[in-house]
Write a structure and sequence with these properties.
alpha/beta, four-stranded parallel β-sheet, about 40% helix, 10 helices, about 280 residues, five-stranded mixed β-sheet, single chain, flat
Length: about 280
């Protein structure tokens, strides 16, 4: 909505996947009060959201499984984007308790691949992204799509946080062939936010995307916005705004990635609103 030359997104805060993770963590702790909880590297791709989970639920961040000393009294929480099959197999073989927090949507993409008996299987995603690693590790036949020639008997799907417009273009290109199956794995929350920033950014001269630079869904929003204006900034918290030069005299927009909390987003909105009206 627009207010005094400021547009504030209709879609903010965590996606349903992260909201669901918090519910699962609460239940997990309630059922295992005597155990210690660990996370390997991260839960989501947002530093502040991770810190929120670590602090509120007394979860210890570790960089190696070897840091878990008492296996029987410990539970390892696995990240939302999915974990490599080798890690899952290792945990099972060594009888290390774990709770897989993989997003249901990401898990469904993997399931769609596993149940298809096509000659060729392709996944469209960022090579070094955790979701891509998860998908490829779950099915050795899957290859990362790099504009290879697509022939009959092929199944194609994609990363949940990929650019929706690009996926749509590929879908239209290959959907004419009945022997090629294209499963669109884009998250509905990601689609809504990408569509909104695509439609609104042409009328804006200054845009703030609230999220983390390590978050692909955040970076995709930035790319879309930069097609219309060069003044696009990633903001993870209100303190970062104190170091920025904010222009009071141009139409401004504030948008949200799916991994920033509602609180952190609202703090950023309040700071910018007060500054623009000062």
């Amino acid at each position: 909505m627009f207010h005094n030359n400021l547009y504030i997104t209709k879609y903010s805060g965590w996606c349903f996947g992260i909201i669901n993770i918090e519910k699962k963590i609460k239940l997990l702790i309630k059922k295992n009060k005597s155990k210690k909880f660990y996370v390997l590297k991260n839960i989501v791709h947002n530093k502040l959201s991770n810190e929120y989970f670590f602090k509120k639920y007394k979860i210890k961040l570790i960089n190696s499984i070897d840091q878990i000393k008492d296996k029987k009294k410990s539970i390892l929480i696995l990240q939302a984007h999915g974990s490599d099959k080798k890690l899952i197999d290792y945990l099972k073989q060594n009888k290390i308790n774990f709770c897989d927090m993989v997003c249901p949507l990401v898990q469904n993409i993997s399931n769609q691949i596993i149940k298809n008996n096509y000659k060729k299987l392709f996944f469209i995603g960022k090579k070094d992204h955790d979701e891509t690693k998860y998908i490829l590790s779950n099915n050795p036949k899957v290859k990362l799509f790099k504009n290879q020639k697509i022939t009959s008997g092929t199944f194609i799907t994609n990363q949940s946080t990929f650019n929706y417009e690009k996926i749509n273009q590929l879908y239209k290109k290959y959907n004419q062939n009945k022997n090629i199956t294209f499963y669109n794995g884009c998250c509905c929350e990601v689609i809504k936010r990408q569509e909104e920033i695509k439609n609104k950014s042409p009328s804006l001269k200054q845009i703030f995307v609230c999220g983390d630079k390590n978050s692909n869904n955040c970076l995709e929003l930035v790319k879309i916005a930069k097609k219309h204006t060069k003044n696009v900034f990633v903001v993870s918290n209100k303190n970062e705004l104190k170091k920025m030069k904010i222009n009071k005299n141009v139409p401004t927009g504030i948008f949200s990635s799916t991994s920033i909390s509602k609180k952190d987003f609202n703090d950023i909105v309040n700071f910018i609103s007060i500054f623009l009206n000062s």
